[in-house]
Amino acid sequence: MARVFVYGTLKKGQPNYKHMINTAKGLAKFQGRGRTVEKYPLVIAGKYNIPYMLNIPGTGHHVAGEIYSVDDQMLRFLDEFEGCPDMYQRTVMQIEVVEWEGKGGAGEARAAAEGVVECFVYSTMTYPPEWVGLPYHDSYDSSGKHGLSYVLRESR
Fold first, then answer.
1. Are strands 2-6 and 64-70 parallel, antiparallel or unpaired?
2. Residue among 38, 66, 80, 82 flagged as catalytic
3. Architecture field, domain 2-131
4. Is 108 considered catalytic here?
5. Which of 139, 142, 2, 141 is nearest to 68 (CA)?
6. Where are the domains of the chain?
7. GO MF annotations for this entry (predicted)?
8. Please, which pLDDT band fits residue 147 given cuts at 50, 70 and 90?
9. Which band of pLDDT confidence, cut at 50, 70 and 90, is reported for residue 100?
10. What pLDDT digit, counting tens, does each position of 117-127 carry?
11. How high is the pLDDT of residue 47?
12. Number of C-alpha atoms within 13 angstroms, CB side, residue 131?
């Protein structure tokens, strides 16, 4: 099992969460909520209003999201879903645990107690330069105050 941190449309209550609970795509177990230890710019960009975490450490906000434990099948699905490695790149980041629900062995307990876990995160280093000038968010909600409605793949 691998740990993945999601900050956008794959979170609970968001348009693509259905994929996280579709066992035909693999297993994803909610572990808790967290936020990036380093600051990153989280922008909503493109004609489909997609949330992107730009891989520019030290700029932006501590981005909030959810921590999942996923099997290899779900990780392969997420790589494909996220257009990895072209659109997003899967990298390891330090995530501060805000609220832990994960039940597991000593490693899980230690991670929760220490307050920081390593997770795979889909961020991007391949983006138009003007995205750096977009508003930065610390959290993503497809129906947030930003007024930028996410366009589902089926509707594109």
1. antiparallel
2. 82
3. Roll (3.10)
4. no
5. 2
6. 2-131
7. gamma-glutamylaminecyclotransferase activity; transferase activity
8. very high
9. confident
10. 999 999 999 99
11. 94
12. 24
